[in-house]
Structure to design on (130 residues):
């Protein structure tokens, strides 16, 4: 009887001292949102339309040549005939400017890398009329 109590006590002690050694895997910390870096959507009116105007696209695309890129008419002319919201590679506006093989690029109507990036970002963000 006494021996079995000692045995039972030993088992309990061993159990208590070894069973709590669990390795906890902590989840990856969620990257905190940096309030100093707000998500800024590309604006069609203040960033995209000026690309058409400053690069003289509107000299030809003035209503006589599709798409009409003049302010006030360009959005309706582009979306969705020349722009597929969310998909730059399926958007003629982007592919025609993005490099060799694009009609406007090949005609020498080339825009800067940052202008092209702005058009790409605007399309990726859903081609908003903002
Ligand atoms: C010198 C006149 C001229 C200028 C300037 C010009 N384009 Fe064009 N654009 C054309 C002509 C002509 C076509 C038709 C080409 C074709 O169908 O191959 C065209 C076609 C396009 C198309 C449709 C492409 C297609 O494959 O259907 C888009 C989009 C376009 N232009 C955008 C622009 C943008 C943006 C600019 C300014 C960076 C610009 N164009 C500047 C004459 C011009």
């Amino acid at each position: 009887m006494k021996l079995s109590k000692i045995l039972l006590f030993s088992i309990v002690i061993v159990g208590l001292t070894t069973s709590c050694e669990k390795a906890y895997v902590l989840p990856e910390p969620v990257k905190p949102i940096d309030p100093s870096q707000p998500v800024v959507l590309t604006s069609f009116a203040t960033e995209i339309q000026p690309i058409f105007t400053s690069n003289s696209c509107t000299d030809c695309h003035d209503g006589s040549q599709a798409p009409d890129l003049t302010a006030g008419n360009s959005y309706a002319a582009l979306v969705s005939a020349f722009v597929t919201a969310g998909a730059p590679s399926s958007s003629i506006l982007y592919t025609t400017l993005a490099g060799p093989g694009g009609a406007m690029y090949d005609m020498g109507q080339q825009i800067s890398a940052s202008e092209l990036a702005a058009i790409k970002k605007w399309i990726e963000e859903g081609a908003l009329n903002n």
Notes: The pocket of heme C is lined by residues 52, 55-57, 59-61, 65, 67, 82, 92-93, 96-97, 103-104, 109, 111 (CB under 6 Å). Residues 44-124 form one domain.
